[in-house]
Design a protein that fits this description.
Blueprint (H helix, E strand, L loop, with lengths): L1 E8 L2 E17 L4 E12 L3 E2 L5 E3 L15 E6 L6 H4 L4 E4 L9 E14 L7 E7 L8 E3 L5 E3 L1 H4 L3
Parallel strand pairs: 6-7
Antiparallel strand pairs: 1-2, 2-3, 2-4, 3-8, 5-6, 8-9, 10-11
Amino acid sequence: MWDEREQSESGQRSRWRDVEFYFGDTWKATRTLTLDYGIRWSFMPAAWLADNKLAAFVPSAYDPNLSVPTSPCNGIVLAAGAPNGCAALGVAGGVYSKNRSIIPSNNHLIAPRVVSRGTYSPWNWVLARGSWAVLHSRSDQRHEHPAGRRESAIHDRHRG
């Protein structure tokens, strides 16, 4: 399954491509009990902007040994391919990320799931179902800011 989406947030168009694989099977354990089980492997790269104009302050990118440590661009990480506004203004600082989305992608989102169903009465008229699953969604990759605005998970995932 492949999915490409665009979402407009604050007038910007963020983009991403998700790829997911699902494997599943059914096992009839007894005459009255059936188990469905499977596993989903999701590749959910972090979102990027169409024009690559993405930048953020990352504390681990701050360089106290910069020629001008109080530079407004010290600690700024720019998306790969983005124009360097810091250099255009003649201001020290501003480093490039390894990718267009600044934060590293998690390509190991494993989601197992199990569903059971069966009849549990002498007359086979009572049907019981149960399920357990691990779910991942794109909203798992963002944090809510205490003031209510969205903030990327950049501060937690940039190290490395």
